[in-house]
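Predict the 3D structure for this chain.
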Amino acid sequence: MCCESKRRFLLLYATQKGQAKAIAEEIWQQAGAHGLEADMHCISEMDKYNLETEKDPVVIVISTTGTGEPPDTARKFVKKIQDKTLPPDHFAHLQYGLLGLGDSEYMFFCNGGRTVDRRLQELGAQHFYDTGLADDCVGLELVVDPWIDGLWLALKEALQLQKEKEGMNNAVSSSLSTTPHAVHELKLTSEVQNLKLEDEGARGSDTLSQKLDDINHVAPARDAEPSLVHSVPPVSQSALNIPALPPEYIEVEFQDSQGENPHLSSLISEGRTFEVPVTKAILLTREDAVKTALLLELDIADTAFEYQPGDAFCVICPNNVSEVEKLLHILGLSEKGDDFVCVKVKQGTKKKGAVRPQHIPERSTLKFILTWCLEIRAIPKKAFLRALVECTSDAGEKRRLQELCSRQGASDYTHFIRDSNVCLLDLLHAFPSCKPSLSLLIEHLPKLQARSYSVSSSDLYQPGRLGFVFNVVEFPAGPSRPVSRKGVCTGWLAELVAPLLHRSKNSQGTKGESSSAEKISIFPRPNNAFHLPADPSVPFIMVGPGTGIAPFIGFLQHRQKLREQHTDWQFGETWLFFGCRHQDRDYLFKQVHHLTDELQCFLKNGTLTHLKVCFSRDSSTADVAPPKYVQDVLRLCAKEVARVLLKERGYFYICGDKKHMADDVSDAVVDILSMEMEADKLEAMKILAMLREAKRYLQDVWS
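Done. Predicted structure below.
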């Protein structure tokens, strides 16, 4: 029950990776300082709240996942409110404020929050506070922090209005606005022009101010540049506004008894997992290519795993062994990695509704938790930095960590932590007097996420086989990162299949096949739209530079088999636009290491009608320089592209990098439509929007 002396509001969160929950917990913690009490629940816990009868204001924090869907925890809620039989005044009694989280690198920015917001409005609910849309691409805190700052006055006004409706005339607080009927508006988006928040107006009394008189300020030389470990004025000389210290809520007990670690399938909530062998590994690039691309083949013949070309699937991967060992060493637990521990909620914790995180087993070895459960490479959130302050003994290091989590140090946090992709190990290397406890890591590090990959095969073409392609991700050493690292999953997979690749190079006629292969755990992640047209006579265009070609190999394999099986069917033309840096180094699926030139085979047998390629780093002696990028080649084929999309109602698929390719391709398509239709750009953009809506312009992109 909420305290009678405090006014209640309902706080709901819908999270996929934990960020929305962490923000909701921040709101819950701050509420008490404003004489308010947040009744906080996951939006999936529909037995613990009832919006149909809710009289108090509602605050919703919701993230976005996949291609614009609400998170898994919100699916039942969204399905319920999307019931078409609900009347338009169903939520006419409801007052709410919504904070959406998203990433503008993706097409459907904050669509999870927008979907819920739009539907609540359709059902008569009223905003008591403007919707905030936070962008992880530039930093969620740029919108989240000021949105929370403005929330308290808006809540108090809403509660005052509610009291007046109930016939109660006593004011909530003497600090309330003299116009309580006005909805407190704070239009927040992630656009840069709206982010001049620190410079405008004074902060409210809710801000935790800490002058740090007891901390020795580190004063670097005037000409020193700021870095992860050093600050310069004005930050180094400022009084700091830092977050409240998150309450501890986990305790870890070491046990003498032995046992077995949980099965990996128990860590996954998305459905059934499959343990399958890696039967083939092929290096698709030359050794001197900028990136290393691998093709792996999995044997799924003895499983119930099903997929369509265009689908994705997830690989359950571990953290790097040496990084886990380093972390154990810093924690002073090198000798206890194989000891079993019991993870429990700390008795007497001040954290509301504290529970053991779902991704942490109640009982397992310490090494299992650090290897399979926690994302030790995660970029530390400000709340984590705030907690690390308390584990740091050196005064200068303590001050710098305080700066990095403060309002005044927001720019330093963005530059030296967020944009530099700094992880916990980097921080502990930079601040050697920081000695966190194991329980603190469990409290603040997010779940180790399975990694998603596009399928690069067809079960019709190769029954019982699943192929996928990836670049081995490289993170070079830098000022904030003392050592270079490979991607968590791609680095692990590359190491896992190294023996297969070695055999491939040294055995004539083989492709790295093995009868005693390593096994990996996977689970399906079907794609609702990125599939071949249902009508085979419809033409389609595929744009997939680099490893973006992966799903299109599956498309073409499937199409080839359909052509063989149905000689009486009519098949539409197919276009593939592919690009890479060098023709002789990273032209994927060209003949390399005994691999058949698959693209040429598709061309020869008629499965692929048109293949257009470009090479961005190759020099040319031609009078007219050849196109460098796929969007340039598209423009050269403008009439054909327009014909396929407009006259023949064809499909257009893009796969690959969002930031550096997909947006440029989209711009090229708009230019092509504008030119060929002899229409202005706005009209062409409307046509493209219609193609997206009709699911004839489809993207499978990543940032």
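Residues 141-165 form the longest helix (25 residues).
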